[in-house]
Amino acid sequence: MSEAIPHYHPIGILPADIDFMGHVNNARYLGWVQDAVLDHWKSLAPPDAVAKYLWVALKHEITYRKPAFLNDEVIATVILEKVQGARSFYETLIKRGEEVLAEVKSSWCCIDAETLRPARIAADIAERFFSKKD
What we know:
This protein is 20% helix and 43% strand. It has 134 residues and is an alpha+beta fold. Strands 2-4-5-6-3 form a five-stranded antiparallel beta sheet. It has a two-stranded antiparallel ribbon with strand order 1-7. β5 (87-96) and β6 (99-112) form a beta hairpin. The longest helix is centred in the first third of the chain and has 17 residues, at 28-44.
């Protein structure tokens, strides 16, 4: 049995992120999720795998709970739910303190950086994202 290793990615809110209603524009959350998931990959994958593989988003499902504002301290918590062939499935929680601002389910495809074709992640690399549980 194994458990996903959570990855915490701080988010900086810029004045350009704020929309006409005075809070972060909903579209900006997609950029945050992309940054957080890619940072997760780079922090746990070996350097040769980071150089060999790229990731493209296939699908995002976002549930917005509360707005974020310019001076908020926001963190994205990334959890890799499973790896299936060339695809990986993530849950990302965007939070301000204990408040959940958004919940995001996303799927990503791993591609070979040279051929730009889908590539399976080797089991020994995927295992780096999970801790063994007794």
